[in-house]
Write a structure and sequence with these properties.
The complex is a heterodimer. By secondary structure, chain A is α+β, with helices and mostly antiparallel strands. Chain B has 7 helices and 19 strands.
Chain lengths: ~550, ~350
């Protein structure tokens, strides 16, 4: 694991894209396919389920370091990462472990899952004894299922494409869906003979992703070249029917067929060799339910008849990627859309009730389109998706053909009342905040937000928190109410679980309002008025 | 702090009533005994200063020509209103001292900032036995354990060499007083030329004049042809990182030398290419070692992870008390004005004590 640790360290040490790609090229050129397959697996964000719970690793590390438990916890809060804390606390060791990555993972790590505790403990502590600091860090992350490194799969694929000369799109497609990190898989990934590539029937296509529009819509040119659709807030999914089997994939490449029996059932009615792209939505009485309803359903281990009837789902279909077993991604969007409509029309009514071709919204010009967009919040959508009529279905995030034209978020001014230290890059900085709004003469917690401030602003707030702590509750501090922030969020709904009586979607800090005093912050009544105006009827 | 003890904490700083002097005061007083020349220990505006002779040139730079400064060598004993006062090496930076104060058999040691690891640019830490020991706790958690300094210098050397291969200038950010000179002294000076930021250059001169062996350096501001920077190492204070000052070097790689670099998150917050774990403060084992060797009946713990160190000491049989001073001891000078290009001018008395928890 020497090579792989060096790669991890190199990737961890730079934030420059070209240096990351170079480090990965160097690695993949040297590593044998058996190790490279696992490296690709981990780098592309896949991970085996947790092998040994981090809690156990923690306990063994505390013993080895000979420190009290509370001191571990203080250290952990400062480091912001359990694996790293353990690596820092273990007694020094200068030896280096040379076990190949494949052997480490397949022969040493995976067999430990579910093994008796003393076996796990012996294996882990003796591994620690063989390894230096960096290797322990990587090992801890692999074994606790916490491995993450700052590269996207796109970047890994770019490195592989550079050393193999196989196009990025081809490698990306070959790496979709489920696969085993075997040397054969890895060699196949870089096989330059494209025609010998046999697509496994479950394999989805890479999703085409849109960028947020950061300019005025009329800069897109003639409206007639574009199609507008409502932008749904659900689970982006691909529905595949091949050789009488059905597969439903989420954008995170999780196979979610069994979580959505309605979709799977409807998909069975599709002809073989069909792939739909769309959004899974909680849907009842002809309209979308709040996203939190879908979350409720996702959270359930067993889908009871009750939850299925309370939160039924549909698929808003907006693209067709495969027809009669042929990849039609290169067709123009307008053509694909026509074929999608035909495909869905031929389905029996029960399936058509689940697969709904998403509405195409038309208007005279951009101005009218913008006016129509104002209905978004009432319809429970996030705005528009704009798609160029003659565009192909591309791989990954792309500027130019698809745009998200979202409505402006709702905003309120709130006061910082609690703070907690962040993790990772934000370790040892107070970056996780709870904001309050006025209810009579009191500030009540309203939302938590973690992002939106610049590094310089974070440092200012961090110092404020340290100097103005009122009380400490474990990791959380209550602070003197003084700082006002403008908080943005996408949607608002009534909630019995929140003290304020409302829950908001995607809260984040829009601005640090140094110009405002706490008396200027919003009140709970104002938020409840917002609720009345915008809440989706449930 | 113990009521009626020889040294008490006041709003101006640590005060010895019997001797009528303060140690490292943060507000103006008639007589200040000062441990070392870092901004959070040497404030302007006091009437008289007593500083360790070994660091006198640095104190003069910080305090300006007008300040009334007396000096006293390590080990010499002064009598201030019947109180014996002596300086003992703290190993932190050139001329840094622990202040030993004795009156009627009661001995206090104010250790200022210190480290135990060898440093060729200053005298090594000298353990001083006492009844009451005041210690810092900047790196008072067991995650902070320094590697041997030689390994760190080797990391800096190979980073510098690799940058040269890639046609990049190497810019290393380090505290202007102490860390910068320690780096210059420790690295392989045959690799390439060394240039300095103004704040660093002035202090580097003072180090040379004090007899510390340093390689030749040139002040960046005097270089007219930017090509001269090729293959060089630039030593600059952390505040230069966000400035346009860096543009003149063209393609460059940045490094940061600080004890905080021990933690990956801290390095990422800094957004530098490389972090080098090099500190002028004691790490966890050194803190415990220094505290043990003082053999004090009471240990007062100030800036840094003081609450954690106090709790650990009390659980392991020592008698420790937290002490809320305004020292920073930050090591990466985030909250210090130390590195303004016009060294010493922008200094204010309202030092930010943000990290002092």
């Amino acid at each position: 694991m020497r090579l792989f640790t060096d790669l991890y360290t190199a990737l961890d040490q730079t934030n420059k894209t070209n240096e990351k790609v170079e480090a990965m090229r160097e690695y993949f050129e040297q590593a044998p396919p058996a190790d490279a397959a696992w490296a690709f697996y981990f780098l592309s964000g896949r991970k085996p389920r947790q092998i040994v719970p981090s809690r156990k690793l923690r306990d063994w590390a505390i013993e080895q370091a000979g420190i009290p438990e509370w001191l571990y916890e203080e250290s952990r809060d400062t480091v912001g990462d359990g694996s790293e804390t353990i690596a820092l606390l273990l007694p020094n060791n200068s030896s280096t472990d040379d076990t190949p990555l494949r052997v480490l993972v397949e022969d040493q790590l995976l067999p430990l899952r579910g093994a008796p505790e003393d076996v796990q403990r012996e294996a882990v502590t003796s591994a620690w004894a063989r390894m230096n600091y960096s290797q322990r860090l990587v090992y801890n992350k692999l074994i606790s299922g916490a491995f993450r490194v700052g590269v996207s799969q796109q970047l890994v694929v770019r490195a592989l494409s550079q050393i193999s000369e196989v196009p990025v799109d081809v490698i990306t497609h070959r790496a979709m869906g489920d696969w085993e990190p075997t040397p054969e898989f890895f060699t196949g990934l870089l096989n330059e003979h494209l025609e010998t590539d046999e697509t496994p029937i479950a394999r989805p296509f890479p999703f085409h992703l849109a960028h947020q529009m950061d300019f005025a819509p009329h800069d897109l040119g003639d409206l007639s070249e574009w199609q507008a659709e409502w932008k749904w807030d659900g689970i982006r999914s691909q529905v595949i029917k091949r050789q009488d089997e059905v597969f439903v994939w989420s954008r995170g490449e999780d196979l979610i067929t069994e979580r959505f029996p309605e979709i799977a059932q409807a998909a069975a009615a599709l002809p073989n060799g069909t792939v739909l792209d769309g959004e899974i939505l909680p849907w009842k009485d002809g309209r979308v339910l709040p996203f939190t309803e879908l979350q409720k359903r996702i959270g359930r281990k067993n889908l009871s008849a009750k939850i299925l009837s309370e939160v039924p789902v549909i698929l808003q279909c907006y693209d067709l990627l495969e027809l009669d077993g042929a990849d039609i991604r290169a067709f123009e969007f307008a053509t694909r859309r026509g074929l999608l409509e035909e495909t869905v029309e031929k389905l029996p009514p029960e399936a058509r009730a689940v697969f709904r071709v998403t509405e195409s919204v038309s208007a005279r010009d951009w101005l009218h389109m913008a006016a129509t967009r104002e209905q978004s919040r009432l319809l429970g959508v996030e705005g528009f998706m704009l798609k160029r009529r003659d565009s192909p279905y591309r791989t990954g995030r792309h500027r130019g053909d698809w745009w998200k034209w979202k409505i402006d978020p709702l905003t309120i001014d709130a006061v910082l009342i609690y703070a907690q230290k962040g993790t990772g890059k934000r370790a040892n900085l107070f970056t996780d905040y709870t904001f309050g709004v006025w209810k009579d003469k009191e500030l009540v917690p309203f939302a938590k937000a973690y992002s939106g401030l610049t590094d310089a602003e974070i440092r200012v707030v961090d110092r404020f928190v340290r100097a103005n702590t009122i009380e400490t509750f474990g990791p959380v501090r209550s602070v003197k109410p003084e700082l006002v922030f403008e908080i943005a969020f996408e949607a608002i709904q009534r909630s019995t679980r929140h003290k304020s009586g409302v829950a908001v979607r995607f809260p984040r800090i829009l601005r640090f309002r140094t110009d405002k005093k706490i008396e200027d912050a919003d009140s709970l009544e104002a938020i409840h008025r917002m609720l009345d105006a915008y809440q989706n009827p449930t | 702090m113990k009521r009626g003890g020889l040294i008490t904490l006041t709003s101006r700083g640590l005060f010895c009533k019997q001797g009528d002097f303060y140690i490292d005061p943060w507000k103006p007083v008639p007589k200040a005994v000062v441990t070392h020349a870092h901004a959070d220990h040497t404030y302007r505006g006091n009437q008289d200063y007593l500083v360790p002779a070994e660091g006198a040139l640095l104190s003069r730079i910080r305090l300006g020509d007008e300040a009334q400064i007396s000096t006293q060598s390590y080990g010499e004993v002064a009598n201030i209103n019947g109180v014996s006062v002596s300086f003992h090496p703290a190993g932190h930076v050139l001329g840094s001292a622990q202040v030993r104060v004795e009156y009627k058999g009661e001995i206090w040691v104010v250790s200022g900032d210190y480290k135990l690891m060898p440093d060729a640019t200053c005298a090594p830490f000298e353990p001083v036995k006492c009844h009451h020991f005041i210690t810092e706790a900047t790196f008072g958690l067991p995650i902070y354990r320094w590697q041997p300094t030689g390994e760190i210098f080797e990391q800096i050397n190979s980073w510098w060499r690799r940058n040269i291969e890639k046609g990049k200038v190497s810019v290393i950010f380090a505290y202007a007083l102490g860390k910068s000179q320690r780096i210059m002294n420790g690295i392989d000076r045959s690799i390439g030329p060394i240039f300095t930021h103004g704040a660093v250059e002035r202090l580097t001169q003072a180090y040379r004049e004090s007899g510390v062996d340093l390689p030749p350096t040139r002040y960046v501001g005097l270089v007219e042809n930017k090509k001269e920077f090729a293959g060089s190492l630039i030593v600059a204070p952390p505040s230069a990182q966000a400035s346009t000052w860096l543009r003149r070097f063209g393609t460059h790689s940045t490094g940061f030398a600080s004890g905080w670099m021990m933690v990956r998150g801290a390095r990422r917050q800094r957004a530098v290419d490389r972090g080098f774990v090099l500190s002028d403060h004691a790490d966890w084992p050194e803190l415990l070692e220094a505290i043990r060797s003082a053999e004090a009946q009471t240990v007062y713990v100030t800036h840094g992870f003081s609450e954690e160190v106090v709790r650990y000491l009390n659980e392991t049989g020592a008698n420790a008390v937290p002490l809320k001073t305004q020292f920073v001891g930050d090591d990466d000078a985030e909250f210090s004005d130390e590195e303004s290009e016009h060294y010493g001018k922008t200094h204010s008395h309202d030092h930010d004590g943000g990290e002092n928890e």
